[in-house]
Amino acid sequence: MAKPIEVNYLQLGDILRPHGVHGEVRVRVLTAYPERLPKLKRVYLGTSPTDPRPAPYTIAKVRFDRQYALVTFAEITDRDTADRLRGLCLMVALQDAVPLEDGEVYLFQMIGMRVVSEDGQDLGEIIDIAETGGNDNYIVKSPTVGEYAIPDIPQVIVRIDVPNRQLVIRPLEGLIPDKPPRQRKRHTADTDDE
Question: Which CATH number is 107-169 given?
Fold first, then answer.
């Protein structure tokens, strides 16, 4: 069974590039709560939410430009220094994140959950999550049928059972493969002379 990912930070966005010459950076916003960005004082920059030592930064100013945030950090005052932040994740400490509602989980907590049907049939384990523009897709690995994707839509997802680490689903017709994908046979050239 895959071990749940241990993180201390939640990713709010990706730093894309410097903006202007005074240290401001353009951030692709990934959080569902972008309005919280200007209220945050302390954030962390690192390579990923599992980075063991992300660097703390103080937000001095945030403004929005379409789907992007333009962020100024108190510690950064010039374009060259801002350019070194390119590609880093902008994160908040888990304890400072927006509190979850009952039954909600962070996406990283879904890794390693068992997937079961409403009638209790074990359908595999979540090994990854594909975040798309529409709904997320949970990538499931089953010992009997291999890997397949479950869309995060109300017609399929019945409930997330957090205490038992289970995702209970109602499989739609054709959602789960009947058998593992076929392995391609290797064809070798016939070397016998006739």
Answer: 2.30.30.240
- Could you tell me the two tokens for 123? 């359908």
Superfamily of 9-96 according to CATH? RimM (2.40.30.60)
Write b or e for each residue in 87-108: b if 16 or more Cβ atoms lie within 10 A of its Cβ, otherwise e: ebbbbbeeeebeeeeeeeeeeb
Domain range list for the chain: 9-96, 107-169
Give the pair of three-digit tokens for residue 160.
Answer: 């997330």
Q: From residue 33, how far is each of 21, 38, 90, 145, 150 by CA, in Å?
A: 28, 11, 14, 38, 25
Evaluate whether 9-96 and 107-169 have a shared fold: no
pLDDT in tens, 76-118: 999 999 999 999 999 998 888 877 777 677 777 788 899 999 9
Q: How many residues does the chain have?
A: 194
